[in-house]
Amino acid sequence: MKKINRNYLKRKIYKILPTNIRLRLLSHLLPEIKLDLKNIAFRTAVTPEDYLSAFNLVYKVFVKTGYTRPSTTPFRLAPQHCNNGSRIFIGIHKDGNTEKLVYSISIFPDSDTGLPMDMVFKNELDLLRSEGRFIVEAGHLAADASYKKNDMNVPMLGNKILHQYASKHLNADDIVIAIHPKHRWFYEDLLLFKKIGEIKEYAYANNNPALAMRLDLRTMKENYANTYRNVLKKNNLYHFFFTAKSNSIILEDQSFSIEKRLLENLKYLYGFRT
User: Fold this and answer.
1) At what angle do helices 260-270 and 48-65 cross, to 10 degrees?
2) d(CA 124, CA 105)
3) What three-state secondary structure class fits 62?
């Protein structure tokens, strides 16, 4: 008989409970979240090799999960990756002189070219824009399954570097995401995103269902403080995002522009003309 994963079982029970009870159980649901991971560092993708490795990891994960179809070109990227304000944050595992990319997430600041989510959720995003809010989209998230180890340490540190860049370097008002509805509980209950709009078929994700969600960065600190006020420090996301520093994150000066040569190579290789 296959052994039942305890964390999976806890999540299944958690999702059917009333909201007020779920909040009280956060400290029991969340595992210990480490701020420093041995031999794993998170930084900005800079070189062409960084970019191609990230695009390839996203492609492999998305094919496995059914979010994209197999292709002769094993890369997954969006035209907005060519925008100078966009960044890819990567997690690198170091073993001696060997480095392996184990995590990738992209962030796209809103611009004249729009956001990838505009393909399906333009009305929802235009509503935020009409309020004068500067939105950035997080997407193209992929993690090497062999490094997840049934915990949240790698993706949570990826979230931390993403939030730091969006709030401190871009001065954004909101982070928006498009997720499969089955992941809603994680983003809504733990990361405090709010849904905007209804579930739609997303052609960019191989016609899978998608839900648009938004994290208000202006009220994030207060909301996290209220939600996690009774949660132990070892799994307290307010402490994790706002009071603790991670030595695994390298987020230095982000004022650089992506090299013109790299952009031109991407445009040439993948047919982007605008």
Assistant:
1) 40
2) 22
3) helix
Alpha-carbon distance 7 to 17, whole Å? 16
Q: Phi and psi dihedrals of 258, rounded to 5?
A: -65, 135
52, amino acid identity: L
What would the two tokens of residue 36 be? Answer: 């420093």
The residue written with tokens 């070892």 in the block is 234
Query: What domains, with CATH codes, occur in the chain?
Result: 34-270 (3.40.630.30)
HSE-CB of 94 using CA atoms within 13 angstroms: 10
Calculate the alpha carbon distances from 58 to 54, 94, 105, 221 in Å.
6, 20, 9, 30
Q: What percent of the chain has pLDDT over 70?
A: 80
What is the structure's pLDDT at 79? 87
* Cα–Cα distance, 237 to 26 (Å, whole number): 10
**In this structure, which amino acid lies at residue 137?**
E
The pTM for the full model equals: 0.86
Count CB-CB contacts under 10 A for residue 86.
Answer: 18
pLDDT at 167 over 70: yes
